[in-house]
Amino acid sequence: MSDALKAKIADVFDEPGCDKNKAKDEKAKKKGCSKPLTPGAAAGGCAFDGAKIALQPITDVVHLIHGPLACEGNSWDNRNANSSGEKTYRVSFTTDLSELDIVMGNGEKRLYRAIRDAIERYAPPALFVYQTCVPATIGDDIEGVCRHASERFGTPCVPVNAPGFAGSKNLGNKLAGEALLDHVIGTREPEFTTDCDINIIGEYNLSGELWQIKPLFEALGIRVLSCMSGDGRFAEIATAHRARLNLMVCSTALINVARKMEERWGIPYFECSFYGLSDMSATLRTTARMLVERGAPADLIERTEALIAREEAHAWSRIAPYRDELRGKRVMLYTGGVKSWSIVSALQEIGMEIVYTSVRKSTESDKDRIKAIMEDPHMVESVPPREMYAQLKRGDADILLSGGKSQFVALKAKVPWLDINQERHHAFGGYDGMVTLVRELAKSLRNPIWQDIRRPAPWEAPSAAFPFAAIETTRKD
Amino acid sequence: MAAVRVAKKNLSINPLKSSAPMGASLAYLGVDGAVPLLHGSQGCTSFALTLAVRHFKEDMPLQTTAIDEVATVLGGADNLEEALINLTKRMKPRFVGIATTALVETRGEDFVADLKNILARRAELADVKIVLASTPDFAGALEDGWSRAVTAMIEGLVIPGDRRGTPLRQINVLPGVHLTAGDIEELREIIAAFGFTAIVLPDVSGSLDGHVNDAYSGPTSGGTRLGDIAEMGRAMHTIAIGHHMRAPAEALQGLTGVPTTLFAGLTGLAPVDSLITLLSHLSGQPVPASVKRRRSQLLDVMLDGHFHFGDRRIAIAADPDLLHTLALFFGGMGAEVVAAVASTGNSPALADIPCDEVIVGDLADFEQAAAANDAELLVTHAHGRQAAERLGLPLFRVGFPIFDRIGAQHRCTIGYRGTRDLIAEVANLFIAVRPEKRPEDFTHVLAPMRGTDTHATPATR
Fold this sequence. Notes:
The complex is a heterodimer. By secondary structure, chain A is an alpha/beta fold.
C-alpha cells in the first residue's frame, strides 16, 4: 500500500465528526476504527466494494475497475440505483488483468490505454478509476496514470484508491468520499446559485427513492444542487461547494465529505433520515430552519410547516386502511446505522411491535435515538444465522425486515421477510415510501402461502381415519 | 469449422466470463456438508457469494481467509490456518474446498505445502476432509475453476487403485459447470432407468436445488457424500460431460482404471441417442419403454418446432462448452449461429462450433457482432439484458449468472425431455414476438423499374 493511501486511511479514521471516534482517547483514535477481520468468520464487502457503492450511482461517468476480472466481473450491474437519463454507469469497464500483464508489469500501460479507449468510445464527462488489490500489490500508480491521462485527453480521470484489502466497506465509502473531495467537488461553478441550494450526501437513489424526496424540496423552492451520489451527474457534484446546506443521509458513511465541506467552504450539515413520517418531517423542518439561518426567506419555515401538515395527513389517509391489519404484528429488525432507528419509529407509528432492532453498525447517537423512541428498547448486536433461524422457527416474530444476507434465514424458517437494504426493489423514502412500506408489510403478511407451507404434509399427520369420503352417487332406476 | 479469434484489447466492456474461484466454489458446493474457502481478501468471497445468492436464491456458506495488506506482504499461510480452525469450529463442515484467488497467487506461495503443514500440526482438523485448487482470477474462467476443483476432489478424496473386482452397478458422472440441478436430476433418472445408481460429482442437484430443510444448516445440506466419492473406483463406468471435464475424468480414470466416456454435451437428439446406446450396452438391457416414449415426444416437438427455428439468426455468448452445446442445438434445428462469443479461448470445444468465427471476448463484442450480423435472438446470461434492451431483441438466458429470473437451477435442457422443453421454450420466444404483417413489409414485391426507383402512379386529371 502506498504511503499516500496509508495517510489517507489514517486521516479518514481520525474523524472529529464521528461520535464514536470523539469518545476515544488519543491512542485509540490513532488506531482508527478498522476492526481486524477474522479469517474463516468474516462477512461483508471490502473497501473497493464500499467505494463502488458510494460512487457508482453517478450515472454519466465511466466507472473503470483496474484489476483482474473477479472484482468487477462478479459485481457489475448488481444494484438498483436508478437513473433519470444517462445509462453509462450501468456499463461495465475493467482492465481484466491477465497473468501476463501482472508478471510483465504491464498494468499501468494497460490502464492508460483502457482509459483512452473508454473516452474514445463513450466520451464521458469524466472517468472514475478504481484501484484493486492485485495492481496495488504490484505497485501500479493509478494516481499517476489518472493525472497523466487527464492532461492528455482533457477528460477528468478521478483515481479512487480503495483496494479491497485496505479494509471494510465502510472505509471504502469514506475513501470514495475523499476522491470526490480531492478531485470533483469545487472544480466547477454552477450557472446560478440560490439561498435555498442544498446537497444530499449518502443517498443512492435505490429503486428511485430520491424521487420520493426531491419533489418535497422542490415544492418548497429548495433546489437539490447535487446528490452524492444517487442519479448524480459529474458536473452537478463538481458544483456542490456552492450549496448552502448539506443533508447527510446514510449516517456516518460519508461523514468525512460533510465535515470537510464545512471546513473548506463553510457549508453546515446535519444528519437526517428520509425513512418514516416523523423523520421525514424533522428533516424538512431542520432543512428549512438551517437555510433560514443562512439567509433564506423567513417564510420558508411557515411554508414547510404547511407542506408537512398536508403531506402527513395525506400519508396517514393512505396508511389508514392497513392499520388494523398490522397493529400488534411483531417485527424483527435486522439492519444497521440510520435504519436501526428511523424504521423503528416508522413501524411504531402504525402500531407494530418491535421484537428487537440490531445496532451492529450503529453509532452511539444512533443508539441514543433508539432509547429515546422505544419504550422498552431491545437492541441486539449481530445475531448468528443459526440463532436467528431458531428465533424465527419458534415464532418470536411475525416478519423479519433485513438486508439480503438474512433473507433465507427467514424464508427457510417459513417466516415472511421484507428487504429494506440495498437490493430492495421498492422505494421506501419520504411520505410516499412509508405508505409503500406499510403496503408491502401487509402484502407480505397476508399472503396465503405462509399457512399453506407451514402445514405438514397430510400423510405425516397421525390420523386413524381414512380422510376421503366416498362421493355420493344417485342411482338411476 | 470455426476460426477462433481472440479480441485483443486493453479494456473489457461488460464482461462475459465469471472468474475461476467462482467456478471452484460452485463445484465445492456440490458436496454434502461443504464450506468453500476462498484464499483472498474478504471482497473476493463477498462478491462471489452475492452473485451466487442472486443466481440460486439460496444462502451460500462461502468463507474467506480475509487476507489484508499485511498478509499480502508477509504471506497468507497464517490466515489460511486461522480460517480453517475458525470455520471448522463454527460451522462444523465435513468438507472444506479451498480455492486460491488472484491476490494470493500474485504473491505466489506454496499453498500445497502450507496446507500440508497446517494439517500435520492441527489435530482438530483431522475429521475434516480438505482439498485445495489453484484458481487465480487472472487465468481462465468459470469452467476452469470448476474443473480444477473437481480434479482436486478426485485426487484428494477417491480411494486410489483398481477396485473393480466385482464392479457395482454404479455409474460415475462428472457433470460440467453448465449442467443445472434440473439437468443432473434428469440424468440420474435416465441412468436409473437402466438399473444403475449414479454417483455424481459434484452433485448440485442435492445441495443447490432449492429445498427447505427442517433444521438450520451452515454448510451445504445435500450433494455428493464423501463416502460415495471415496468409492468412485468401484463403478462400472464414468460419464463426463463437457470438454472441461476431461482433466478430472483423466484423473479419475488414472487413479482407478474405471473406463470413461466423454460427451461434449447431452442436448439434442444425436448426443442423447449416444448416451442411451452406451447405457444400454453397459447394462445389457434393451432401452426401456419410458425412454423410448421420451424420444418419441422429442421427435414430435422437433417437427412442431422446426417451423420457428429455420433460418433464424442466433447470437450466443457463453463459456466454451455451453456455447458449443447451444450452437450445435440451434444449428441442428435449422437456425443459423451468426455470432458466437466465448469467455475463454483455451477449449477444444470452440473449434467445431458451426459458425465462421468464434470471438473470445466480452459482451460488448457480443453486442457488436449480434448487431452487425442482424441477429434475431440473443442467447447469453443475465448480463445480456442491457444489450437486449439496446438492440430491441429478445434475450434467452442461459448459463451463469441468471440473477433476474427465478428457477434457473431447475431448468432442464439435457436428455430427450430437456431438449424437448428447450425447443418449446425457444420457439415460444419467437412466437411471442412474431409481428403482424403490414403493407410496408411488401414494398419489394414488384421488380424494380429500369432507370428509376419509383413505380408509376395513376395520373390525375
